[in-house]
Specification:
single chain, DNA-binding transcription factor activity, alpha/beta, 17% strand
């Protein structure tokens, strides 16, 4: 059965049948005609074409989600919340990974535009400078086409954003460790051009004030391998013997550092204390429990979808973090 058959059965024009079934971006159909057409379609067991519906309405029922790496527990938690929230709104999620590649990110944004996505959520830390400006321009072009957009991580100019208070969370972590008696730290800082890593590193360092000091701050990849290599480097340079605690700017790096410490025969926290940032779900299986700053990933995903569907312009919603003290940083005050 074709749409022409439905139009003939309902006694209406092909254009009217199309508008009644597929919808229209600028024309409406009287309710009685819509009823006639839908009844005819049911009798003929006609199945609408999704592409035709998208062309007629000017957009699909797809929400595009771009993340750096779905294998990262941080992004998988956000993706789960986005999918659940989008499905509750009758939308399907099209997921793609950028691998933190600006060129690929731009290509995927353009693909979402050509596929007439209803909305797009882009999750992940941004890099400073020209790469951030290019992203803002790509998203602005998407927005001019009427696609709802939201960013997760840091604010993007002109785009509704759900921002994590990375500086505040890192400062709270520093204060908590100082209160436990820690004074000398090594920081696994992540890439210097990554805004998330920079904000967490600077937030931690600024909060130390004159109560503590940093023996070393290592630039490394924002990955398990990056944390692993960084701790091995600290051990090779003899830094570990002079610090109370190692602080990683994300939990995945902290887990890599934990594995490296064990390879070196070092106990955590007996020989070196360790803290991370993020509160990823896999920490539940880690022994000792890792001290971290929890980020409400579920809330990030829910808020981002609602902002994207609500077409909120460049509003920025900030989400706070909480410090959770685990067995990896015991209280030193009684030692």
């Amino acid at each position: 059965m074709t749409l022409s058959d439905v139009a003939r059965e309902a006694g209406v024009s092909l254009a009217t049948a199309s508008r009644a079934i597929n919808g229209s971006a600028d024309r409406s159909v009287r309710p009685e005609l819509v009823e006639r057409v839908t009844e005819a379609a049911a009798r003929l067991q006609y199945t609408p074409d999704a592409t035709a519906q998208a062309m007629a309405r000017g957009r699909t029922t797809t929400l595009g989600l771009l993340v750096h790496d779905i294998a990262d527990p941080y992004f998988s938690a956000i993706a789960a919340a986005v999918v659940r929230t989008a499905e509750a709104e009758g939308l399907q999620v099209s997921l793609a990974t950028t691998q933190n590649d600006p060129a690929r990110e731009a290509q995927l944004i353009d693909l979402m535009r050509r596929q007439r996505a209803r909305a797009v959520v882009i999750a992940g830390g941004r890099s400073a400078g020209e790469r951030s400006d290019a992203l803002a321009e790509s998203l602005a072009a998407l927005g001019r086409q009427g696609v709802g957009i939201a960013a997760i991580g840091q604010p993007v100019p002109g785009v509704a954003s759900v921002a994590v208070d990375n500086r505040g969370g890192a400062a709270a972590l520093a204060a908590s460790l100082l209160d436990l008696g820690y004074r000398r730290f090594a920081v696994l800082g992540g890439p210097t051009d990554r805004v998330t890593a920079r904000d967490r590193r600077e937030g931690f360092l600024d909060a130390l004030g004159d109560r503590g000091s940093v023996a070393s701050s290592v630039e490394t990849a924002f990955t398990w391998e990056g944390g692993h290599r960084a701790l091995l480097r600290l051990a090779q340079d003899g830094v570990l013997a002079d610090v109370d605690a190692v602080v990683a700017t994300n939990d995945v790096m902290a887990l890599g550092a934990l594995a490296a410490a064990r390879e070196l025969g070092l106990g955590v926290p007996q020989d070196v204390a360790l803290a991370g940032f993020g509160g990823i779900s896999t920490l539940r299986d880690v022994v000792p429990t890792l001290t971290t700053v929890t980020v409400p990933m579920d809330e990030l995903g829910v808020r981002a979808v609602r902002l994207a569907l609500g077409d909120q312009g460049d509003v920025v919603e900030s989400v706070g973090c909480d410090v959770v003290i685990g067995g990896s940083t015991p209280d030193l005050r009684g030692a």
